[in-house]
Description:
single chain; 347 residues; alpha+beta; 8-stranded antiparallel beta sheet; 31% strand
Amino acid sequence: xxxxxxxxxxxxxxxxxxxxxxxxxxxxxxxxxxxxxxxxxxxxxxxxxxxxxxxxxxxxxxxxxxxxxxxxxxxxxxxxxxxxxxxxxxxxxxxxxxxxxxxxxxxxxxxxxxxxxxxxxxxxxxxxxxxxxxxxxxxxxxxxxxxxxxxxxxxxxxxxxxxxxxxxxxxxxxxxxxxxxxxxxxxxxxxxxxxxxxxxxxxxxxxxxxxxxxxxxxxxxxxxxxxxxxxxxxxxxxxxxxxxxxxxxxxxxxxxxxxxxxxxxxxxxxxxxxxxxxxxxxxxxxxxxxxxxxxxxxxxxxxxxxxxxxxxxxxxxxxxxxxxxxxxxxxxxxxxxxxxxxxxxxx
Length: 347
């Protein structure tokens, strides 16, 4: 270092002593890590010359006098943050989200009968419909659970408005097609398509129209037990599919509520009240079996095609048709609880 400083000082003196004078001039050059003091005896040295000399000195020192060790130290400090970020383990991101469950769900193997069904909306809201009647609402979020072995497990948890969790499904394989509540799978659901939902609603409406067509439809009845009301004959319903928990007519009313909405519900509710009667002595349900008439049939044997899909509506068209009615077209809406047929047509 001393040898380098001596060479630098000699270089500066050589530049400034081109013209000799009698009075020395002291020039202080401030440079990193050292101060160079040079005595010049030429009083005619200009400010520009001094500035040039200072600049040359600083440049020379910066380029020549900073040791390799000093440079390494500076670089190490400036790069510490980047190096730390590069070598640090990245934070583990949860692979699950509420979007995993968006769609329609049903108890496995029983879609279309009296079973629990569930809808998860794009905003994370959950609507669980119980087979025995009633609906529960909640909001879906992902919860993290630490296990004793140090590993983390994730859950799809549904919360009430008061932030109380009332059902949870362990997160597992993506994409999700089956979920089971609790560790032991107390309540299990399988994913169903919107096409499945539409076809089932269409079948429900076909069944209801047929049952109320005056011939009893496909219902099991007991012809030995009839009643007459307003010159119409009604026959005892013995079909166990629609006498759930001895509900009788209420079972049909519930099926209608789950199938159609708006003006269609108003129309068919009036027809249903005329088509089913409750006997006063025993409270059993009777269905009209006189003055039979035609009814529409949705041909869903080969499924349906969904069009005009939004978060709250869609249109379903049967892939099959029949010679009498043609293809059935149903316009669906989500009423906040369920997908229902708002209107329909055949062509």
